[in-house]
Amino acid sequence: MGSMNVSEAVASRRSIRAFLDKPVELSVLRDILDKARYAPSGCNFQPWEATVLAGEPLRELREKIRGVAPQDPKEYDFSAPEASPPHLARLHQVGASMYTAMGITRDDKAARDTFTNANIDSFGAPAVLLCYFPRFMKEPQWSDVGMWLQTIMLLAREAGLDTCPQEFLSFYSRIIKEFIGVSDETHIFFCGIAFGYRDPDAVVNQFERERVALDDNITFTGF
Length: 223
Ligand SMILES: Cc1cc2nc3c(=O)[nH]c(=O)nc-3n(C[C@H](O)[C@H](O)[C@H](O)COP(=O)(O)O)c2cc1C
Fold this sequence. Notes:
- The chain has 223 residues and is an alpha+beta fold.
- It has a domain at 6-67 and 120-204: 3-Layer(aba) Sandwich (NADH Oxidase).
- 39% of the residues lie in helices and 13% in strands.
- The protein is globular and about 50 Å long.
- It starts with 5 loop residues before the first helix and ends in a 6-residue tail after the last helix.
- Bound molecules: flavin mononucleotide.
- Residues 14-15, 17, 94, 119, 164-168, 191, 209 line the site of flavin mononucleotide.
């Protein structure tokens, strides 16, 4: 495989929701995570922590979660801009685009729920990174963790791998933390990152995700 520049890694990354039945080598994941240590963080705190599962332990965790109701209270609320029509419209666009591509109609709630629940198996990904950090971390450190995760997802592209970030897994934070031996008292679970090789034929990996035009969100002054 030829090497990939950053623009190519950014352009070819998309959230993958159908993976090939092909394992991911530990050495490849170690290399990605080793490089990602150089992601920036305020005060160089490097607040991120993670456990990466594959094989039998991953199968076991999925079995533990399957059929269990999402935890209440939630670990955190990821539906923050719910009150904002423009943000909500973006969510609806990506959902509509995805389900239309899959041939799932708007009123077929059962089919949508079934697909949402495919998050439990990380859409068939052979490895999953489970990301958490100390509860005392505040908004700036959440942002640091996000930068680390995106660094990982771009390095994954360079290594020929694909990813899907999964805050869905936070519905099962307590079960996950207990399973991997992380204290619920001291640590907040943020999300999973599914790792694997994309199924290039799956329509769910091909639908269009719209983006806001550059000048709608960014202002340039003084040039
Ligand atoms: C922190 C984070 C959590 C996410 N959680 C989920 C998830 O639980 N399930 C899912 O299918 N996609 C999840 N996504 C993917 C987003 O839906 C996706 O990034 C967005 O629609 C843009 O599409 P793209 O990643 O293909 O460019 C998540 C993305 C981020 C950044």
